[in-house]
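## tool: complex_structure
## caller: assistant
## args:
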Amino acid sequence: MRIRKKYLFYFLSLTSAFAYAAAASLDGLISYKYINDPWVLGLSFFLVGIVITFFIVIILSLPIKGKSIGSRIDPSFRRLRLLKKEELGYQLLASMGNAVSTLGYYFVVSMFIDSSVVLSFSQLVIIYLLIIESIAEKNAPTLAEVQSSIIVTFGAMLGSISLSGGINVEALLIVFLIINPAWVLFASYQRKLKLLKIDDRPNDSINIRFWNFLFTTIIISAIIFLINKEIFFKSIDAMHSSFFWLSLGVIITFFSVVLFIRAMGIGKASITQAVRASSIIFTIPFIYILSHVIPNISFVTDPVMLLIKLMGIVLVVLGVISFALTEVRAYVFINAKGGYSIKELMKKIWAIKGVDAVAALAGTYDIIVKIRIRTLGKGYERIIRKLEGIEGIWEFKWQSILKEWEEI
Amino acid sequence: MIKAYILVRTYVGKLENVLTEMKKLSDVESVAVVTGDYDIIVKAHVDTLEDLMELTDKIQLIDGIKRTTTSVIEKEITL
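## result:
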């Protein structure tokens, strides 16, 4: 199928947000009706999860008409495979991040009576990701991206906040210093994994999820077993008694994360995370359904609270639309001067922020460069000025892309 | 795997038709409408040079194509 890549990114991120909202609501139902202890719920989810995830990946590996079922979800996926050496370090770091943020989350939920106010600050992870990208990534965020991310972050905080709880400094510190940084580690390294090339093909999100889940389960199980063996054995009991509901949660979460990883292979981690924050909107119908099942969950009717939530939703929608509308892409055709190595020129061009691809050609032009930036102004500041400063470029032509369709 | 950029110029008034036909072609990775010397830039991936010739032939036969310039990619760095 040939569609605009931008649409694919938003389709993946929004579908992931919807699945995430469904999984979170199901979590609420399980914790109310079946497993009250958050630690037991967390660990039993992982223990059931690894079995179910393994079977899902096996099913997705089955071939139909020469292609695996999973290739319909991620075209790079062929079958479940062993981890490659180059993935191991990234997987360990991503799993460590996942495990720590999960343990931090369950600690806050179990220690503080109403943690919803504090947990809404976990939306600030978008800002953390922006800061990391500004420092470490080749393609640093632009002002438009920073503005839109801040709009989405505060929108998501307003949309997920509850007035019933209070601000607890200790819980807040756990969110700021443990949960959010650990999630940044998790998201950043999952993205790095997705951008890796395995056997000359882009890495697939299904294998990334499977191995990450396996390592995370091992780390979490080991930590809980060492700290409190009772929780470990209670979790094994809970696995048996609530197998169906836990499995359902695992399946929905699996697809949510797979789509999230795939989206991160197209866009930046901060923007993917920001678009995924729209799950606060998708949560509304699920909360409405849950309010009929669980007595202490009530659908908001207080006009002030409704107004706050509405403002949050409007901000999230505005921020996401503004991401989608601010993107400039272009091709730059380059002819090199004689006596300069094309290979060296390619390296210098690749080092420029905003360069998406560099290709050496046989034909009219020596090099073709694909640019992806947020504004045309950035095109001048970041690209043209830099290209003009490279010795060895004889001339170049800028061709702005008006519209593009890509194979998915 | 051979990758190539096919730079296309079209006749005025024929752009929409050319795009519709190009989106149907296999072995095409992306189709971009651009401003400047060219009207469309196609990125193709084929198994052999013979396949590349067949693809460029198909593009040449689309109603509205004025000229094509094919450049084979020798080396590529991407995200």
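## assistant note: Residues 20 and 62 of chain B are 10 Å apart (CA to CA). Residues 49-60 of chain B form the longest helix (12 residues). Handing back to user.
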